Amino acid sequence: MELNLSESWSRSIRCIVKLGGAAITRKNELETIHDENLEIVACQLRQAMIEGSAPSKVIGMDWSKKPGSSQISCHVDELGDHESTEFSRFVVVHGAGSFGHFQASRSGVHKGGLEKPIVKAGFVATRISVTSLNLEIVRALAREGIPTIGMSPFPCGWSTSKRDVASADLSTVAKSIHSGFVPVLHGDAVLDNILGCTILSGDVIIRHLAEHLKPEYVVFLTDVLGVYDRPPSEPDAVLLKEIAVEEDGGWKVVNPVLEHTDKKVETSVAAHDTTGGMETKISEAAMIAKLGIDVYIVKAATTHSQRALNGELRDVVPEDWLGTVIRFSK
Amino acid sequence: MELNLSESWSRSIRCIVKLGGAAITRKNELETIHDENLEIVACQLRQAMIEGSAPSKVIGMDWSKKPGSSQISCHVDELGDHESTEFSRFVVVHGAGSFGHFQASRSGVHKGGLEKPIVKAGFVATRISVTSLNLEIVRALAREGIPTIGMSPFPCGWSTSKRDVASADLSTVAKSIHSGFVPVLHGDAVLDNILGCTILSGDVIIRHLAEHLKPEYVVFLTDVLGVYDRPPSEPDAVLLKEIAVEEDGGWKVVNPVLEHTDKKVETSVAAHDTTGGMETKISEAAMIAKLGIDVYIVKAATTHSQRALNGELRDVVPEDWLGTVIRFSK
C-alpha cells in the first residue's frame, strides 16, 4: 500500500494512553508486573489501533530469548509476503507503580539536591527501576505486534522547572510516530533547573504531549472504575461519570447530580506515591480537557477500557459504560 | 565540596570507552552477557575514574530487586554523611555482541526498507535486544558505584544518512556529564534518510562523540590483545603495537617493523557482524587519531586494559604493555 507522505504528516494523533502504574504493576509487590492485565491491555490497544475491519495476523516483534531457553523464536519466514497492518497513531505513557517509587522515596530524588551522594545514587537507582519497567512494557506491546519504541524522558531531553516541564524535545516522538512507531514514555527522574533534580510524573508528560500533539482523546487506564467522590474502598463511594471543566480551569461533577454540590471530592493518595494521586490526575486531566480534548479515566483490562480506547465515547457516552469522562464545558 | 560551575563546564572529557560486544557478551551464546568480564570492566572503570588517591567506599546504585528475592537491598542509611566521590568525566559506548545481531540480520534492518513488515518488526526486535543489553550494562556499572545513565541513540535523536551520523543531539549527553553522570550509549537501529533505516554502529557513535567532545583519549576494550596482522587465531599472527595515522587518513604499522611493509593487514570479520569488524574499527580509530586523540585497542579485563583506562600510556607506551596504540603521526 502506497503511503501519501504529505497526507501522512498532517494526519493527527488519535489517542494518548496512560497505563497507570496501579493497573500494570502489582502495587504491593516490589517491582512486579501485573502480567495478566498488561497482556489484556496490549491486546486491547492493538484492537483499538487497527484501521479498517480486516482482522490481521499478529506479527510478534519481541524476538528476545525466553528465560531458560537458548533459542530465539521468530517466524520471520512467514512474514515475507505479509501485508502491512495500518495502525492509527497512538502514544503510550506509563506510570511506575511498584517500580521506582521505593528508590525515589528512600533517596528523596523528588525533592532535589543532586549534590548529595544519596540523591545521586537514588537518581540512578530510580532510573534503573523505571527503565526496566519500560523495557518490559515495550516488550509486552511488541509481542502483540505493536511497533513500540521506548523513550526515557531524561536521556531524551526532558527537564523540569519545579516539577513542571521546562524542556522536551518532541521531534523524535514526532518522527517515530511518522515512521509508524508507537512511542512509549514513562515517569522518570530528570534534572530540574530549580531543585537540581526531581521526578517528572507520567501525568505531567501526558499533559505536555496532549498540548503539543493535540490527540483526539486521552485515556487513563487505572485500577478502579474511574474517579469517585471519596476513596473507592469506602462502601458509599459514588463513581463520578462526568466532570465538566470550565473556562477558568475549575471543574464540577455533572453526572451523577451530587446532593452536596459544593462538597470537595475526597480522594486517596497512596503514601508511597511521590508524584501525587487522584487529585493530581484530575487537575492534569482538567487541563487537557480545557484544550477541547476528551479525557476518559477507566479501569484497565475491562470492556469499558476497550470502548474508551476505541473512541466509542466521543459523541455519546452510553448509559452502560462505567468510567469517568472529563470534558470541556463550552 | 563546592563545585565551581564555570570551571566545571570547561573541564574536558577524559575518556570515551568502547565496551566491545565480544568482550562483554558471550559471542556464541544468544543474548548472554559475559558476567565475569563485565564485573571486572566495571571495577577497572571505577578505578580509572576516581580522582585523587583516597580509596573510596563503593556506593551501589542499582537498588533493583534481585531475581528470586522480594526485597530490595540498599544501604541508604549508611550514605547519610558519605562524602561525594569525585569522578573524572567518562563516556561509555557498547557494542551488541550476541544481542541484536540475530534480529538485525534476520530482518535486514541494516539494509533499510522500513515499509516492509519484516523490517519494521526486526527494527523493533533489534532495539528490544540491544536496549535490554544496555540496561544490564548500566546496572553492572551502577553496582560498582558509577552513576550511569543509559542513552539509546534512536529515541535520543540520532539518525543517519547512509549509515553515517546525520543528526545527533549531544546536549543531553553534555548536561548529563556536567551533572556528574556517565552516559552509556550503544549501537542501535535508527532511521536513515537514504535507506529508511539502518544499524548505527557503536564505533561510528564513538567517532562522532570524539569529534565533538574531544576526549583526552579513547579506549576500545575487545576480546583479543589488540589488532593483529592476520586473524589472531592463526599461529603466526603478530600483534601490531603501534599504528601511525597520516595527514591523508592513511595508516601504517610502525611497531613492530613488518617485513612486508606494503602488506595489507588481514583481519577477520564474523559473519553475523552486520556493522563490519576490525577493518571498520581501524578506520574509525584512524579518524579519531587524526584529531590528535590517542586510541588504545586492548583486551578487556586485563592489567593492560586497566593501564589504558588509567591513561598511563599517554606519554610513553611501556615495553611490557600489550595492545595497539593508534596515533596521529605529526
From TrEMBL, chains A, B:
<protein>
    <recommendedName>
        <fullName>Isopentenyl phosphate kinase</fullName>
        <ecNumber>2.7.4.26</ecNumber>
    </recommendedName>
</protein>
<feature type="binding site">
    <location>
        <position position="281"/>
    </location>
    <ligand>
        <name>ATP</name>
    </ligand>
</feature>
<feature type="binding site">
    <location>
        <position position="277"/>
    </location>
    <ligand>
        <name>ATP</name>
    </ligand>
</feature>
<keyword id="KW-0418">Kinase</keyword>
<comment type="similarity">
    <text>Belongs to the isopentenyl phosphate kinase family.</text>
</comment>
<dbReference type="GO" id="GO:0005829">
    <property type="term" value="C:cytosol"/>
</dbReference>
<dbReference type="GO" id="GO:0005524">
    <property type="term" value="F:ATP binding"/>
</dbReference>
<feature type="binding site">
    <location>
        <position position="202"/>
    </location>
    <ligand>
        <name>substrate</name>
    </ligand>
</feature>
<feature type="binding site">
    <location>
        <position position="96"/>
    </location>
    <ligand>
        <name>substrate</name>
    </ligand>
</feature>
<dbReference type="GO" id="GO:0016114">
    <property type="term" value="P:terpenoid biosynthetic process"/>
</dbReference>
<dbReference type="InterPro" id="IPR024192">
    <property type="entry name" value="Fosfomycin_R_FomA-type"/>
</dbReference>
<keyword id="KW-0067">ATP-binding</keyword>
<dbReference type="GO" id="GO:0102043">
    <property type="term" value="F:isopentenyl phosphate kinase activity"/>
</dbReference>
<dbReference type="GO" id="GO:0016301">
    <property type="term" value="F:kinase activity"/>
</dbReference>
<feature type="binding site">
    <location>
        <position position="97"/>
    </location>
    <ligand>
        <name>ATP</name>
    </ligand>
</feature>
<feature type="site" description="Transition state stabilizer">
    <location>
        <position position="27"/>
    </location>
</feature>
<feature type="binding site">
    <location>
        <position position="101"/>
    </location>
    <ligand>
        <name>substrate</name>
    </ligand>
</feature>
<dbReference type="InterPro" id="IPR036393">
    <property type="entry name" value="AceGlu_kinase-like_sf"/>
</dbReference>
<keyword id="KW-0808">Transferase</keyword>
<keyword id="KW-0547">Nucleotide-binding</keyword>
<keyword id="KW-0414">Isoprene biosynthesis</keyword>
<feature type="domain" description="Aspartate/glutamate/uridylate kinase">
    <location>
        <begin position="14"/>
        <end position="298"/>
    </location>
</feature>
<dbReference type="InterPro" id="IPR001048">
    <property type="entry name" value="Asp/Glu/Uridylate_kinase"/>
</dbReference>
<dbReference type="Pfam" id="PF00696">
    <property type="entry name" value="AA_kinase"/>
</dbReference>
<feature type="binding site">
    <location>
        <position position="223"/>
    </location>
    <ligand>
        <name>ATP</name>
    </ligand>
</feature>
